[in-house]
Design goal:
It comes from Pipra filicauda (Wire-tailed manakin). The chain is built from 66 helices and two strands. It is an all-alpha fold.
Amino acid sequence: MLPGVLRDSEAAATVAKGCRRREMSHFTSEDEALLQSMLRQLLQSVKEKITGAPSVECAEEILLHLEETDENFHNYEFVKYLRQYIKNTVGPVIEEETEKYTSAQNQSEISGYDTLVQHLTKKTRESKEYREMMHALKNVMMVVVESLINKFEEDRMHNKELDSKTKKERQSGYFTDNCSDSDSSFNQSYAFMSQEQLQLLTERLDPIQPKEVRQEALQMLCFAPPSDILSSENWPNLRKHLTISLSDPDATFSEKILRFYAKTFSSSPFNMTREVYTSLARHLELYFLSGEHSLRISAGLDVSNTDINRLLKKVRLLNEYQKEAPSSWIRHPEKYMEDVVESTLSLLSVKHEPNHPACPDFLGPVYFLALLDIKAVWFKKWTHAYYSRRVVLRLLEKKYKSLINAAVQQCFDYFEFCKAEGNKSSKVSGFFHSQHCSDKQNFSYTGQELQYIYFVHSLCLLGRLLIYKEGQNLFPVQLKNRKDSVSITDMLVLFTQLIYYSPRYPKTALTAHTDSYSPEGLVMEILQVFCDQTGCVAECLYTDAVIDALLHPVQSLLSGTEVCINCLEATLFDVADILARITASEDGLSLLLYGENEKNSKDSPTAAHVIVQFTKKLLHDDLSLLSGSELLPVVKGAFIFICRQMYRTCEGLQMLIPYGLHESIAEAWRKTNLLSERVSTPVAGADSTSSISLESKNTLLWEETLLDALLNFSMTPRGLFLLHSTGAMNDCVNFMFSSLLKKIQTNEYEELGNQVIVTQMATTPMGAVALQSSGFIKALVTELWSLLECGKDDLRITQPKSAPVDPIDQSCQKSFLSLINLLTYPAVFELLSKQNMPNKPVYSFREVPSDVIDIIDRLIILNSEAKIHSLFSYEQSHIFGLRLLNVLCCELNTLLLLETQYKVSQVLLTAQEENVTEASEGPGVFIIDGLSVERNHILVRINLIGGPQERILPLRALDKGSDPYPWPMFSSFPLPKCYLAGIPRKAEFRQDNDLDKLLTLLKSPEKPTGWTENYRKQFCKVMKARSDSISGPVLAELIEKFVSHLSESRTDCYFSTGNYKAMEIDVKKESLSSVQQLGVEMTVRYGKYLNLLKEDAENGLCFVLMNCEKFLKQQQRTVVSSLCCLQERYAGYDWFASSIFLIMSGDRERTLTFLQQFSCLLVSAFLWLPRLHLSIHLPITTVEYGIHPVYFCSAHHIEMLLKAELPLVCSAFHMSGFTPSQICLQWITQCFWNYLDWSEICHYIAICILLGPDYQIYMCISVFRHLQQDILKHTEAQDLQVFLKEEALHGFRVSDYLDYMEKLEAIYRPMLLKDMRTIRVQNT
């Protein structure tokens, strides 16, 4: 025997071990007595924890960690006593050492909180007081514990004598009955039994033995360790006896056997307990098959009945084991697990023979299991891990598929019942509602209630089954009362229909389903899990049948048919929830937009059309059934969110544009905004919870919902254009900024979305101005300055901050990228145009920049000692500014603006000139440091035009070795010749049959029908075979003659142009802007480098530009606008006209004639950006927005095609918070100058003119395809924006991707050209 006192004595010893770590000084006899009393009290308080421990070691661990596990730890008298002694004994030591530490800290000898703790701990443990305290404590605790153990021994002997007397008084039996319901067998002592005793025990439990003998044996069984029983050779026979005894009419037998089983389940390993489990499962299976159980479903179930109660206890024990077994069976052979699974499935599949009269009404074991585990938690746990799921589903498929069939049948039966009930309240679902809301306990279930419980169990089981591929393989199933088999789609349609056919309660409809057993709540959980899955699981959900079922209530409301749905608002909210989850995935969005087979039939509109129509009706309050509902705003918001998920994407927006949803949302916002302005001012003393206050809160919430919906239009270029048309741009930006300040959107996905929105807005003038006026730019600049210069004041510096290794510190990287996203040329022009540099004589350290001009003044153009001395981190901050300048100057229009307004080149040259060593004789040597290297790189970049093979940019890193920086520095122009690549040689003209055919077609005086198409085909053939032959005079002639031919055709002329004759005298009176003059210088310098221009070319280019400006001015309108870009002439340089000038080898008359003819073609709108500046050919609203068709048309379709053709690249852009439209607009605006070599620029212009304007879009997609691996790499490095703007397109050749472009043309041309032709009437 192992008496309980032994555990107590061991526990006391454990306390003694723990107390040796305590600290006390001297103790008297009174202290010893007091300690003994307090220690006994502590042990009594934790007795249950100690006696429940399986071993002495575990008991010791429990005591050692008592402070962590016992919330009353610090309230024990023993603990309080110890704490006071520690304070009295070593408290003075700690105080003295703390004072010494403070003094040392003032002298900067040591610092830091962690250092203080370590220092005090070490000094205290080394002190004399501590050692004496520990010695005294050890001695006194040994005395106290020894005294306690002696007392425990006396108590044990006394108890032993009492036990002996009790045994003598009993006439029979060896052990007392400690298996009562009021005590647990785990708290009793074990009797270790020999094999002979186990053999005798087995014989006495034989059913043929007298009742008294069996009862006595059962009593012995309760005291025996389960491990001894299960491991003995007598266990097989004993198990048979126990299985038979479970059916004994005497309840005491089954009660004690169940207690033994329960103890076995809790304390034995799985390889032993599985035999006990299978024994119990087999007993129940035989019981249900024997016919003894004659209850029927229709008769209901009274759980207070003794026999039913006993049966439920057995099933409950079975179910408890089912839930616990999966945590351990993976450590044992699969055969063991398979035995448990098969015995369970065999039990649950029990049913009467088909010809049995009670067969349909048979109350089988699955009903009892459902009563105890209504949500089928056991099945969820069994299928969670692949190890067990494989076995479960294999057995279901091969032997027990009837279990699945029955579950499916139950779901269909309930659905038919709900349909038959119609709008009436069902007693079935009302059962659980009333039960959970009542204080009275329910002891009986009706037949309908039992059927409903089994339905919930079946629903949960099937919902879990269908999310696995192997589970889906069990379908289709064939039901007896259905002709067609039931597929997975049928099941999902059924689940969906249950949302609106099953009864529900309006009051709790939009809460978190307070009734956890409501059908719609369970179905929503299942469908939500499906929506969150990927692969085959999602594929099952993404079918037209399921979507049609979801949209059934919506279709009914739209068509005006009778709607027999309980709580319509809650149903619509649930439907919207599932649809929103479906729309969140790419496949789900495609299904809603295009249908299952991506065929948009006019006869049957896709789900997207239905949803947007319904949303518009909701916004216009055109649905009478929903009018006046309190929950209507919630339903509106839910369906707006679905639409938002769609129009956030280019393809979704393209589908929704005809419906004018943005106008409906804007109209609803304007109405709500008026209401919110009319809300009365709160009066002091008024009830804050009044209806007026609540109404105003709801109004403000609804207004924010609408603003958020409008804001999300700006996720795409076309959507941003539509947002401009609503007039809500400034309000949306203010809302976004206020949300960011409140930290409302903490979700990473939402944060990336906000970055994309800011990037899109910064690409348009009105968007940039809105960001400025909202305070967004000021907040961005302020945050940047705090990171660069201020640091964090709230952190105590315990060690010096490490010097940054990277040119831009990691803490500033996010701000750096945000500035790059923001500072596009349209934004720079609006924010900096005609703004002078502050150049103050003195800058205070507390003066924080608040605008972009301040960043340029304080970080980039450091042309005074005052600016330099105002920086705490001069080098780091200036390098940040120079890196930013380098990226900005990659956009040539921005470069021209900064150079003409702030003379950036001269500032950098002056700084280089000052950064030299002093020499007694001759010029000094340039000092090579981080700043001079950065300046050298920028100077070369901004003064050389050329593609990847036409200019050489110095590196910004030092090499190893004796010459760390081989690149020559300079402080005046011209640049060293080493930065100029070799002059490209002109390709030798060789005779070529294909080229001859092309030239012959070109010079043919007659142009029959189909000539244009033949010309294009022949051009593509030459491009693919010998692209180098399409250059120089040949290229000039090709495009010139082709444009001349098209301009003579009415069908090909898209714009009407008046007559204009260039006049040298008139244009001389005009003068070019400083930006244009600098652009002319750069163009001529580049043309001379390419050997395309002569010395007097500058006058010729000025002639072309001035005449173009005069010619286009005839087709411009006057616009009253605050935007800088709409005040005067085109904001930027005409890079396309300059390119044509170079192609025509500087022939000004030929260039001007070509441009005049070219201006009537559709392609001129997308290649020649100044062509549509303030143009009368565009709607007045489009002109007022300052947004070019290249952005809202070409760039929009680039983003749409990118998602379809290069999804990885599209995802990379989104993850970077950058947009393809921004970089493409930059490429197109400057005709790929500095990104491609001249020959490839010519080919780009040629394919767009000869093959169609849509080739501009295919060209950009081809570039992204060429850069795919680099884009993914730089996305991971978090510098995608910098890479795309700074790096030229190395290795890209237009001819290499012409086949790919032709494939894109075959797919997308009809849609793209149709959209491009609508720019004249683009007023949606």
